[in-house]
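Hey, I'm writing a tutorial for new members on how sequence and structure tokens pair up, and I'd like a real worked example in the thread rather than a made-up one. If someone can provide the structure for the chain below, I'll link this post from the tutorial.
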Amino acid sequence: MTARLKFIGLLALAALLVGEGCGRDNYSVTAETDESYYRDGQQLNRQGRTQEALAAYLKLIALRGDQAPESHLEVGLIYLEHIRDPIAAIYYFRKYLELEPNSRQAVYVRGLVDTAKRDFARTLPGQPLENTSARLDQADDLERLRRENEDLRAEIAALRSGGGAPAAGIAGEGAAARESPAPPMFVVPATPAPAEAEKSPITPAPMDAGASPALDSGAAPAAPQQASARTHTVAKGDTLYSLAQRYYGNRSKWRDIYAANRDQLPSPEAPLRIGMELKLP
């Protein structure tokens, strides 16, 4: 009788372990973007409730572990753009690249890592350090950051020229990067020329002068002059990526914003200037 009870107990324990294992496997079946925590994080982020969005993404990372690359990317963006913690942002960006090294966004995320490194470098003290060894370490770090920045520029230039990624660069990403070029990674502050500073935000650019023959012939006004068109004035920290998330709730919409502003942005890598008026399609 005792042996039989032990046997039944072992069977029950085995069934419990199998059930727990199946429960963990469900995370490998369910897509990350279909998880409730991920959807909550997206909605909270659109509402400007970044702290609550951060908590939702971190909960999903705790549940899925290495099966939550998109959540790592979202957490990195929150730390970089809202919390202003570049060190934490670099950690989550690198975690995304570790999990998705050949994704379509990998080149762009590497650019975000570089941007976070520059943000961190700006926090370093400008005056000489008292400790000689610490001063030398700081110089080494700045030189390493400079080299990594040059390497990233060389990789982007190679991808844009159609020659594929350099041998020491990111293998397997050339075609995907050419199909989906990375958006500008940071805003370069620039003082507008006097002629540009005096322009009214709603005054058409000089390129609209080409429409004068159509107006002389009685043609209808051009579509960009419609009152319903939306615009955005570029501020510090704005990128095509962040504007697409803010206005459309979808990062991939940066391509639509770029296409609508080809007159000001000759290429996806062209920097955004503070005060630039961007059309929002």
